[in-house]
């Protein structure tokens, strides 16, 4: 686990997310506490539980992005789920334990990719030898007794000549001169069998017939012709998968899930109970909460890779809480989310900063994309400010979707430029206040039109 201090974590998040300092501090402390816990004695370590967080704020203010960037920073398995997608046990739908199974699958893929990278060099060398064997089959060596076969000078010369030819071919391979030469390769595939998923209603493992039968299925070899460049990629991948120890992958992946996994539960306000006389939809909402509770408290979930203990997984939940409030959650669940942070709505100044400051700022993305066509796009300060003004205005007039409104406005603003860029005679455009107003004035002035388009 990376040993970032809370201040360093906030500084890293600041590169991608504008404002919301309180939320950044809360998640930074939660991640640092994980590192602190691992420094404790084993006996005390098991007693220290993660400080789960509820983020309260409207859509588009950075709740999901903070959690995702945090997981990337900590190199931790991360899964985002929506609370409203789950149903109480006994109803048709996904059971809540599936969030842990999804997290485990992500961790397996993460560790498998890392381990494949470690053996990439050896895999590339093995793949190269396989390619060489296709281009020039190796000399067959017969295991005959000396009295049965005595190598003569001509056979030795033939072998030396073949070795020289092989090295010349290898040199051409390294130079890329053989990339387009066609070769025939064999790929191993499982025997054709439909993927049948079986879902139980009692929280048991989701599985498929292929998993159950596993290696009992016969393997089929399929031949196909590809060029050397493509064959090399395929063989490198096959060799990397062969060199990876899956037992170690499972062991490390399960450890990461249990020690550093992060589950982001969005729309938790949608399952907050409301007074309705104890019947109807609120009963199901409360049922989902009660199903989530043991996972957040700490329980063991069975996955196809082995049991996963959820005691030390960090849970970050989020919701707009326009209609309900955190206190509408059942008391036991409230108690498992001790940290509450409120994220602020975004104003014009925030939107200007979002457009320009982050490393992945939208304007930087659009400029870089069009630059690939040799088209130079420039935004003036007053043009950027006008985009932020319109985004703020539309958010106030209709549904407030925060920074996500910028995507819609920029797409509308730049659609003609993006379409014409490959063929345009003029290879540059300047987006200033006048250009923004000219393009969007009719839509902004017509609230009904604005509601549909922006």
Explain what the structure shows.
Strand 8 (300-303) and strand 9 (306-309) form a beta hairpin. With 454 residues, the protein is of the alpha/beta class. Helix 2 packs parallel to helix 4 and helix 13 crosses helix 15 (381-397). It is 52% helix and 14% strand. The strands form 5 sheets. It has a 5-stranded parallel β-sheet with strand order 2-7-10-1-11, with helices on both faces. A two-stranded antiparallel ribbon has the order 3-6. The chain has a two-stranded antiparallel sheet with strand order 4-5. It contains 18 helices and 13 strands. The model is unreliable at 141-147, 197-205 and 275-281 (pLDDT under 50).
Could you give the count of β-strands? 13
Distance between the termini: 42 Å
Radius of gyration: 29 Å
Quaternary status: single chain
What is the topology?
Blueprint: H1 6-14, H2 21-38, H3 42-45, E1 53-56, H4 63-74, E2 78-82, H5 98-118, H6 120-135, H7 153-175, E3 182-190, E4 197-198, E5 207-208, H8 209-213, E6 219-227, H9 228-243, H10 246-260, E7 262-266, H11 281-297, E8 300-303, E9 306-309, E10 314-319, H12 331-335, E11 339-342, H13 348-356, H14 362-371, E12 376-379, H15 381-397, H16 404-420, E13 428-431, H17 433-445, H18 447-453
Task: Identify the notable features of this structure and list them briefly.
single chain, 454 residues, alpha/beta, 5-stranded parallel β-sheet, two-stranded antiparallel sheet, 52% helix, flat
